[in-house]
Amino acid sequence: MFYEPKDGHGLPHNPFNAIVTPRPIGWISTRSSDGHDNLAPYSFFNAVAYTPPQVMFCSTGKKPDQADTKDSVANIRDTGVFAVNVVSYALRDAMNASSATLPAIQDEFAHAGLDKAECRTIPCAYVAAAPAVLECKLLQIVELAGDANRMVIGEVTGVHMSDECLKDGVFDVTTYQPLTRLGYRDYSVIRDLFSLTRPDD
């Protein structure tokens, strides 16, 4: 099968997200300029640079109670900061609950039954039970083609790691089993690892 996206795919569901998999989940926490905490998962997310460490996530679409975007981007645009909470398998239901479309003033931490902790380098809350958290300051918001498509790029200013995940000086992802996003309504969990040595190492 071949199709050009501009002509449609003719399938019951869009296969694009199922092809580009697995994708890490950026569970983004923000705080509005008037103090309301927000938490939402984004599957267009990744690390993009080592020095300085940088991450990005993309928001698509907008909410009725925001002028041109979603709560996360609106808050980051106003405050210049956000945190990325790593999603473990144990937090899958809470992550899913936080994806509900709620009013901008409603706290997804409370909605999902999650305890908060306060970031150290930025004025923002994070998921206390997350195995790792990246505190970030905004570098830029890039307007992408399409309606309300935006890429948010941030520099990591602080890193939290659960001590239980550190094994012999290595951050061992099998201790918490990262959740990944697939296509449709599908997710996967990482439990098995293998290593490859690069030819030039």
State mean pLDDT (0 to 100 scale).
97
Give the overall shape. globular
Instruction: Report helical residue fraction.
Output: 10-25%
Helix tally? 4
Number of domains: 1
CATH topology: Pnp Oxidase, Chain A
CATH superfamily: Electron Transport, Fmn-binding Protein, Chain A
**Cα gyration radius (Å):** 17 Å
Percent strand: 25-35%
Kindly report how far apart the N and C termini lie: 39 Å
Q: Largest beta sheet: what is the strand line-up?
A: 3-2-6-9-10-5-4
- Class by helix and strand content? mainly beta
The major beta sheet can be summarized as:
7 strands, antiparallel
Sketch the topology as an H/E string, one letter per element: HEEEEEHEHHEEEEEEEE
* CATH C-level label: Mainly Beta
Q: Unreliable segments (pLDDT under 50, ≥5 consecutive)?
A: none
Number of strands: 14
- Please tell me the CATH architecture by its name: Roll
Protein name: Flavin reductase family protein
Domain Flavin reductase like: 18-173
InterPro entries: Flavin_Rdtase-like_dom, Split_barrel_FMN-bd
Organism: Thalassovita aquimarina
Notes on the structure:
- There is one protein chain.
- This protein has 201 residues and is mainly β.
- It has a single domain (27-189), classed as Pnp Oxidase, Chain A.
- Helices cover 11% and strands 35% of the residues.
- It is built from four helices and 14 strands.
- It has helices spanning 16-19, 71-79, 92-97, 108-111, and strands at 23-24, 26-31, 37-42, 45-49, 54-59, 81-85, 116-118, 125-127, 132-143, 150-161, 166-167, 170-171, 179-181, 187-189.
- A hairpin with a 5-residue loop joins β13 (179-181) and β14 (187-189).
